[in-house]
Amino acid sequence: MLQSALKYLCLSSLLITVIISCSPTHKYTLRKTEVVRDSDIHSIVNKEHSLLFKAGISVYNKYYTGLIVLKQTDSITSHLVFITELGMKMFDFRIQNNQLKLMHVFEPLNKPKIVKLLESDLKLILLQNLFNKEAKVFEEKKGVNSMYQITTGKLKNYYFINTNAKTVDKIIVKGKVFTKKKVNYIYNDSLNPVRIKLKHKGFIRLKIELTNISTK
Length: 216
Description:
The chain is of the alpha+beta class. The chain has a single domain (about 30-210), classed as outer membrane lipoprotein receptor (LolB), chain A (Clam), CATH 2.50.20. Helices cover about 15% and strands about 50% of the residues. It has helices spanning about 1-20, 110-125, and strands at about 30-35, 50-60, 60-70, 75-85, 90-95, 100-105, 135-140, 145-150, 155-160, 165-175, 180-185, 195-200, 205-210. Strands 1-7-8-9-10-11-12-13-2-3-4-5-6 form a 13-stranded antiparallel β-sheet, with helices on one face. It is globular, with a radius of gyration of 20 Å.
């Protein structure tokens, strides 16, 4: 009986250690809680000119390639449009008041689960779940960068921030145990994203890869 209890205790301790070491916050220290403003973080949407990306989207074992245009159309509205190499519009999302609204979707993608997944992941890429939300602010124990933690329902979003540039370099979305989504960003000298990669795990697996080919 004693040996069984000791084994259980050891296994429990090991599991707790693994969970803590895998937590995105284990190298960070909690400093404060605050509402994230658009002045705190550099936006993905460029208000000066449109951004053009070469795009690859994989969903339900189907792979779509083409171009994605991210363009501000007026002072409060932007659009994210995906066009195939043959010139067919696959989807068009309107971005307004920090909300994403589907304006058009091509029939092969017009399934409730896929549309919901696309909307959720594109909102994540465009930082729609970050601004004007209350976040726990962490700072690196050894370093100068920071991280925001925002809880949405059963999920926790972790935004890894380059403090000097005020850019989001990585996002991790976790459930109670497992990582659900990852987004990675690379920027140019003008702080425009030149490469974005999203990987979504789950029943419907979704991958999005964007490479900036804008002239500016």
